[in-house]
Amino acid sequence: MSTRVAKSRLSTAGIASLVAALAILAAVVVAPSATAEPTASASAFNPSPVRHVRANGIDIGYRVIGKGRPLVMITGSSGAMSEWDPALISRLANKHRVIVFDNRGVGTTSGPVKGLTIEKMADDTAALIARLGLRRPDVLGWSMGGYIAQELAIHHPNSVRRLVLAATDPGSPKAIPTPEWVIKVFENPETTTEDLVSLLFPRAHEAAARAWMARIPRWPELRKEYFYVAPETVAAQNRAEGALWYGRGRGAYADLPRIRHRALVAAGLKDVVVPPRNSRIIAGRLPNAELVTYKDAGHGFLIQNHAAFARKVIRFLAAP
After folding, report:
1. Does the pLDDT at position 21 exceed 70?
2. Is the dihedral of CA 218, 221, 223, 225 positive or negative?
3. Which residues form the domain of 181?
4. For 38-61, how does the pLDDT look when each residue is reduced to its tens digit (9 = 90+)?
């Protein structure tokens, strides 16, 4: 997820905490059942056990799903790799070797978070790519993961072939702020779980959130600690994706024209967490970008529209 700063920005730690809590509930309490929505091509969803590799001075936990050209997926704020939607992953894994991992200090990945920046997380990602011998994989980043993907392409251009930037923004004061009413939802102590879910999914599509959580147990060998994010990591990420991303001279905005990689920029037109105009800004500043939007979807469009989005990503990555 993404984070804003001060009164005009939104900290989505509330959403991240909600997602983690629901994921833990799904993984630990709810067993997969015949009534749970099946993943497409379920045979493709056969993740490896959690593995670890030493990279950039930390132990990074990761999983591999499928075969083919590698696709590295970067999660958002406080998000664990086990929160990726199995329905989306299974579709992508039909054509790609998908690598998911935990960012520094999240879930299965160690590492100090003092002085954490988006660029440091991009360095971690580049080191993971190098240690796994992936050469130039395709990279998909969601929300804060999109910040990391942008910095990866800027500072480690030889670590990326193509980019997919989902529900993200360019940082700097040029980024479009979150609406005040959304901030008030978070600041209100009487805010309900349903209110928080509605920030990821439009009200008419909140069943997509329940279906997502019902699919989480499809990840094998889940443990409660896989979803744990220490308070100091949450605080460090909030600062990295807040003041250090949106301040004057910060973020990726100024450097976007330097990114020569082909990029797919995607957004839900009802996204209230990261307003979709941010995706238009990114696509307009990237030399080789394609913009795709989803009409009746929000920040979780890649879950709500997992089949359509997976098809679009696969076509984009396969194009000459």
Report:
1. no
2. negative
3. 13-318
4. 544 444 689 999 999 999 999 999
**Burial degree of 114 (CB within 10 A; 0-12, 13-18, 19+):** exposed
Counting the structural domains of the chain, the total is 1
Please report where in the chains the tokens 């000459």 appear, as a residue. Answer: 320
The domain spanning residue 232 has which CATH number?
3.40.50.1820
Task: Output phi, psi for 9, to 5 deg.
Answer: -125, 160
Alpha-carbon 185 to chain mean position:
22
Lowest mean pLDDT among 41-50, 73-82, 134-143, 170-179: 41-50
Nearest Cα to 75, choosing from 201, 205, 166, 183? 166
- Return the SS3 of 312: helix
Residue 108: closest CA among 138, 75, 139, 71: 75
Q: DSSP E strands: which ranges in 58-110?
A: 58-65, 69-74, 96-101
Inform me whether the pLDDT recorded for 31 exceeds 70: no
With 0-12 / 13-18 / 19 or more C-beta atoms within 10 angstroms meaning exposed / middle / buried, residue 115 is exposed
What is the percent of the chain with per-residue pLDDT over 70, rounded to a whole number?
A: 86
**How far apart (Å, rounded) are the C-alpha atoms in residues 100 and 132?**
12
Would residue 253 count as lying in a domain? yes
The verdict on residue 135 lying in a domain is yes
pLDDT digits (tens, 9 = 90+) for 183-208: 788 678 888 877 878 889 998 998 99
| Domain presence at residue 247 | yes
Helix (H) or strand (E) holding 81: none
d(CA 221, CA 168): 31
Q: Is residue 2 part of a domain?
A: no
